Amino acid sequence: MKKIAGKISFAFLLLCLPYMVFGNSGPVYWQGYPSAEILSIEGDTPIAVKKENLIFDFSGQGNNNYTISGKVTAAYDMVNPTNEAKSVQMAFPFVGSFKDFSRNDIVITAGGSVLPYDIYIGDVVDSHGDPRVKEKEASFDFAGIVSTITNELYNGSNFANDEKGKLYTIEVAPEANQRINIAIDFNFDFRKTKVFTNGFNSYEGDGEKIRIASWCDKPEVLEIFVLGEEINLEINAFTDGELSKKTDLYSYQVSEQEAEVKSYLMKFVKNNTRVNNDSGISETQLYNLYAGALDRYLTRNMGYSSEHDLMAQEYYERIFTLVYTVEFPPDSEKGVSVSYKASGTMDKRETAKPLYTFDYILNPAENWSDFKNLNVQIIPPKEAPYIVKSSIEFKKGENGSYTAAMEDLPERDLSFTLYENKKITLLDKVAGSLHKRFGYLYPLVIGIIALVAAPIIITVAIKLLRRRNI
Which of 117, 122, 313, 418 has the most crowded CB, counting CB atoms within 10 A? Predict the structure, then answer.
C-alpha cells in the first residue's frame, strides 16, 4: 500500500506543478479583433439593403502568428427607392497594423467595378479581448470612427505644424576599429523646451539633466531635434556600457539647421518606417498619426521623446477606415461588395487544441433605411472544421460548410467558434488543463500518469477479484 500511495502522490504532484515552469511552450491566447458591416457616413440615407450574402472562407487560410485567417466577403444588394440620383459615401472600418496592412488584401466593388478608396487612421485598440476578462464585448464606437474621417492636420498641444525648431546633426566616427559608446549630456526645462532624439539606444534622466548614448563601431549620424529654447551639448565617448572609461579614439562634427516640425517628421517617417507610397495612405493621415504619437510622448515624458516611440506605431493594432463613394441612379439597384482578410482569436486556456473565435459586428447595418435577408456561409479550415459555439443557429452541409438565413438582423452581433472536434469534451478540458501546466510536454506527462496509474488499476482489480472469490 505504501508503494501505491507513493505512486498516487507522484501523479498528484505532476498535476499540481505550476504551468509557468513551461511558459516557453507558446501562448495559450492570441488576440483577434472583430470585423464589421459597412456604414453610411450620412446619418439619414434613403438607401436600403435588400439582401446581404456574408461569406467567411477559411479553405485557403493562412497562418497569422498563432491564429488562423481567412477571406471575408460581404456582398450587398442595395436599393435607391427615390426618383433622384444619390451619391452615397460609405465607410468600412477594420482593425489592423501597418506591418500587416496590404491593399492587396482588400477589394471594394460596386456594379461589378472595383472602386478606389481613401484610408483614414484611427485609434489604437488596446482593450477588446483581454484574456483576463471573462466576458468580452465586440463593439466599436462608430460615431468616434466617423469623427476620424478628416483631412485636417493634427493640432498638437506641444508644437504647431509650421513651428520651426533646431536640428542638431552629430556625425560620429570611431578610430582604429574602436567600438565606442558616444554620450551626450544636456539640460533643458520641459516647460520651455521639447526634445526629440534619433539614433540613440540609452537614456538617463534626473530632473532637467539628461544623458543619451549610443554604441558606435562605424561612422554614425545621430540627431537631436529641439523646439523652444536651445540646449548646450556636452559630448564624450566611452568604451564601456557604464560610461566610466573615457576614450579619445573618435572624432565628431556637429551641424545645426532650422527645420519645420511637419517636414522633419515626414522625412523621419519616410527614412525610418516601413510605410511606403504603395500603402495608399495620404501624407496628411501619416502626419496626423505620427504627430499625434509624438505629442502624447512629449507630454508623458516631460518634454522628451525618441525614435523608438514613433517606430513602435506601425506594430500597434488600430482602427483603419476605408471611405469610398457609390453612385446610385434614380429608382435603381446596385451590388456593392467588400472583401478582406480577417483573423480570429486563438484560445487554448481551456482546451489542449485551440479554439478560433471570429466576431462580426452587425449593428452598423441599422444605419441604412432598411435591411433584409442576411445569408451567412462559413467554410471552415481543415484543422478546425466544426462550429462548437455561435450566436446564431447554423446548418452544416454535405460539403462541410455551414449556412444560416435570416429575414432580419439578429438581436446580437455575429460570433462563432471553430474547433477540430464536433464538441468540447471533458477529455479536451482535462488535456487543456495539462497543456496549460506543462506546455508541449503534456503528452509525455499523460504517458507518465498512465504508466503510474496502470499498476494501481491492476492491483485494485486483482484485490477486488480476490475478495469476490473469497
Answer: 418
